[in-house]
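Input chain follows. Return structure tokens only.
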Amino acid sequence: MFDKVLIANRGEVALRIHRACREMGIKTVAVHSTADSDAMHVRLADQAVCIGPPPARDSYLNKAAVLSAATITNADAVHPGYGFLSENADFADMVAEHHMTFIGPEPEHIRRMGDKIAAREAAKEAGLPVVPGSEGALQDEGEALAMADEIGYPVLLKAASGGGGKGMKVVRGPNELASAYRTTRSEAEAAFGNPALYLEKYLEAPRHIEIQVMADNYGNVIHLGERDCSLQRKHQKVVEEGPSPALNADQRAAIGDLAREAAASLGYSSLGTMEFLYEDGKFYFIEMNTRLQVEHPVTEMISGVDLVREQIRLAAGAPLEYGQESVNLCGHAIECRINAENPHTFAPSPGRVTEYHAPGGLGVRVDSALYSGYRIPPTYDSMIAKLIVHGNGRNECLMRLRRALEEFVVEGVQTTIPLHMDLLTAPDFVNGVYDIHWLEKYVEAAQA
């Protein structure tokens, strides 16, 4: 097992990784920008190294600075968390070249699944169903038009190296395609340094279902059920739950086994998440995330498995401790992402937290690095906390979520807690009948 792990991240995920390491008897090194010198994980880590000024490109995305911090502190592994360098195959290679372990999959898997076109081809080879679309990168507008005519409108243009909802545009007719092609290509070049696009059928009202898989270096793979991440705004997840209210037991078992078998055929190891769109009883693979997910606590609550601990064990070469038949999923869990934003306009609201009180009680978990007096910097993502609740069933979970949100106090900045409270009065959400477009329509109606 590792003696010391450098945590190449910030905020609640850095604190989450620190806690897992501490429980495993592993020392931690926190890296931080000058804006994060008073962050909670920096205070708690065994060692802390400042790696640059506030802009992420000069600190958390600065590979040389992160590796220098790991070298001078004699860390023997690097945990990237999520975001920043977590899906950067070049960084994973560099970690290995410096005789340290990257806590994640092999660089080849990061590289292959990080390219949407390559991932789509890998998924097809592994027997996963994919959304009808182009076989590879589009060569020009003419090919895009011919492909759209073949599969039928509406279609979705997507950046091959995209992520986070960037580099995507819906096209509803041939008269829109040329302009959309040029715009999306420019956005892809600016955001990802790669203008390549591909095209696929646009599904009108799908659910977003993802399967958590876990694999060791010896060919053993299990899945830990699904998470429903359909409540999204601008392609960013807002609420996640598991199991999905849209699936029955047979569907759940079938897609779980399919994802597990696909991961095995890919030779994958570490944690990973297979993401699907689900519509009219059919699943379509869209991508694989080769890292820890923001919403991993949902799976932890229903499975009882510490995913970060397992991720560290697997990176250290340990085998899975149990097989699929030993996985026991119990109850229901819901996660609300709490952002420092105006709950109506979603404008960022950085600043000093004057009062902070996290809810508690049976089945309530809060993952956050906030404390009273902490100043939320304007430089990074606005998510400041995750509220996760667990109940014996979905109805109990919803009641517990309402109670926990009522107890949650964050003063000094605006947060999206009121939005989550409002969702609990929406019949569609309460009844579990929503798709990936539902939340944006709900927000638009509330603002009208």
